[in-house]
Amino acid sequence: MKYTVVIVEDEKYTLEALVRTTPWEQLDLELIGTAEDGMSGEELIKDMEPDIVITDIRLPGQDGLDMLSHSPVNHAIILSGYIDYAYMKKAIRLGVFDYLQKPMEEGQLESTLTELVKKLTEEESEFARFRKVQDASNLFIALPSAAGKHVPDAAIRFIEENYQSPIGLPEAARFAGVTESHLSRTFKEATDINFLQYLNAFRLNNAIRLMRNPGKNIGEIASESGFPTPGYFAKLFKKYTGKTPSQFRDEQSQIS
Q1: What residues form DSSP beta bridges with 79?
Q2: Torsion angle of alpha carbons 14, 16, 18, 20, nearest 10°?
Q3: Which residues pair with 28 in a beta bridge?
Q4: Which residues have C-beta within 8 Å of that of residue 7, sequence separation ≥ 6?
Q5: What residue ranges of the chain are covered by domains with CATH 1.10.10.60?
Q6: Phi/psi of residue 114, nearest 5 degrees
Q7: What angle do CA 182, 183, 189 make, to 5 degrees?
Q8: Short-list 70, 59, 65, CA closest to 15
Q9: What average pLDDT does the segment 120-125 reach?
Q10: What is the reported pLDDT for 54?
Q11: Which Pfam families has this protein been placed in (predicted)?
Q12: CATH class of the region 3-123
């Protein structure tokens, strides 16, 4: 399958070079849009919901990291003409995949995209694993409610109590009193899935419960389950369950 990409870059020459020289087809990627400032970049990301965002940091309107923090993005690559450790620290908190300094060495972006595509493919395998344990009448994703270890259990409790809010690994790590890298490693070891996958699966299980109430529309269900947009919710729902929210509702109405 092809993964979709959006580029946000205010330097016109750099943007044109990225579009023209990156071997999108060879990397199993599809470039679906570009923007030249942070505000239009945010709108584009929310509208297109790409798998990957490539962005500069210093952008007109709002900087690239603020743009990412306001958008439904799981995988991003930062391009920057300088090294700023405060920006790098914030990028790490946002889960940015890599931080590349301009001018990039030949093949550097291509190599980074290759590694990111590999990661995305592994995640797709995880989604498939979730789907295999489900049957037609039960789409709930099986998740451990406890891991038997203090740090992962604290993170699970944090998710259960705060899933409706815009939370992520940094907030859970602060709650558990450990570093993000420590939480990430111990959580995966204890639960066999990473923190973000658990958070999204927990939110989806809540959405599945809510969708059995015909009085709630998809937008309300997405918001009450902690998803930033209905489109992002629908995209993840299909990845994890193999069905769109509408297909699930139609099936439920036929069963009842």
Answers
A1: 56, 100
A2: -150
A3: none
A4: 15, 18, 19, 31, 33, 34, 35, 53, 54, 55
A5: 133-255
A6: -60, -45
A7: 90
A8: 59
A9: 83
A10: 97
A11: HTH_18, Response_reg
A12: alpha beta
Query: CATH classification of 133-255, choosing from 3.20.20.70, 2.60.40.420, 3.40.50.720, 1.10.10.60?
Result: 1.10.10.60
Q: Both tokens of residue 205?
A: 């299980």
Q: Can you give the pLDDT at residue 145?
A: 86
Residue that is written with structure tokens 């060879």 in the block: 26
Per this entry, what is the length of the chain? Answer: 256
Better-predicted residue by pLDDT, 242 or 151: 151
In the chain, which segments carry CATH 3.40.50.2300?
Answer: 3-123
pLDDT-derived band at 227, boundaries 50, 70, 90? confident
Q: What percent of the chain has pLDDT over 70?
A: 93
Is the pLDDT confidence value at 252 over 80? no
The answer to whether the beta carbons of residues 78 and 91 sit under 8 Å apart is: yes
- Give the HSE-up count for residue 36: Cα atoms under 13 Å, Cβ half-sphere: 8
Quickly list DSSP for 75-92.
-EEEEESS--HHHHHHHH
Task: Please give the DSSP secondary-structure letter assigned to residue 105.
Answer: P
Q: Which residues, at least 6 apart from 96, have a Cβ–Cβ distance to it below 8 Å? A: 68, 76, 77, 78
The token pair at 96 is 């940015």
